Recover the amino acids of this structure.
């Protein structure tokens, strides 16, 4: 079955995952994380894309960003791939690819899923049992979004800014979102959408994406088909992808 093309839209938040080839490590020392973040910043600046959240894990990376132009997404990924892979190969005297050939991406329904997706990304180290508090992991955007640590790479989304009238109010409200675990169905929805390069959102949002793509774009749950579903129910599925 042919792969569906990814859909990127200007001004629409996008969740991106870059995974190490064969799920192998892509970061090996502290300097590697610093280097990746530097080149991420360099890739974002020319096109003015807004980065809202990120998580650098041992063998994969999550980014939540909003591009000004659809074609900027490929430019960012290519720039990162070229510069970071050159650095890793030179530093560790290796050759060949570092990333899987195709990155995963999912358009995000802003009103419904923006903050859920941010939480999903910043909770990656907790789900991986690397830490018990997202604040204890250095390589995510959590410390900036929740604790106010300066991070010039980040541009808060309007949905995040609406959490309060001042930075301290927004940070307090954002931390409160982490007091409860993410709903398992929401986690499954995010993973399924990424695995199928599909949009994450309700029925109205999917109709908008389908109109832009010229084809049906709703993610398809694996296994038995759903026996029922309501308008706006979004995506369902139980694919455990390790994202």
């Amino acid at each position: 079955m042919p792969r569906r093309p990814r859909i990127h839209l200007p001004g629409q938040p996008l969740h991106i995952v870059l995974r190490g080839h064969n799920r192998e490590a892509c970061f090996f020392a502290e300097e590697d994380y610093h280097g990746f973040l530097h080149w991420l910043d360099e890739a974002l600046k020319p096109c003015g894309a807004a980065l809202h959240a990120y998580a650098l894990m041992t063998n994969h990376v999550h980014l939540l960003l909003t591009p000004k132009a659809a074609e900027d997404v490929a430019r960012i990924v290519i720039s990162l791939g070229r510069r970071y892979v050159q650095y890793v190969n030179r530093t560790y005297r290796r050759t060949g690819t570092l990333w899987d050939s195709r990155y995963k991406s999912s358009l995000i329904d802003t009103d419904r899923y923006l903050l859920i997706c941010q939480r999903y990304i910043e909770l990656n180290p907790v789900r991986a049992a690397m830490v018990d508090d997202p604040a204890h992991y250095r390589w995510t955007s959590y410390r900036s979004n929740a604790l106010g640590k300066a991070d010039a790479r980040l541009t808060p989304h309007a949905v995040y800014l609406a959490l309060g009238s001042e930075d301290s109010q927004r940070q307090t409200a954002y931390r409160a979102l982490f007091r409860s675990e993410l709903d398992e169905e929401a986690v499954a929805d995010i993973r399924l959408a990424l695995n199928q390069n599909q949009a994450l959102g309700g029925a109205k949002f999917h109709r908008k994406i389908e109109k832009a793509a010229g084809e049906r774009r709703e993610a398809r749950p694996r296994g038995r088909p759903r026996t029922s579903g309501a308008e706006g129910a979004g995506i369902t599925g139980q694919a455990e992808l390790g994202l």
Q: What stands out?
A: Strands lie at 14-19, 50-56, 60-66, 104-107. Residues 222-242 have pLDDT under 50 and may be disordered. The CA atoms of residues 161 and 233 lie 26 Å apart.
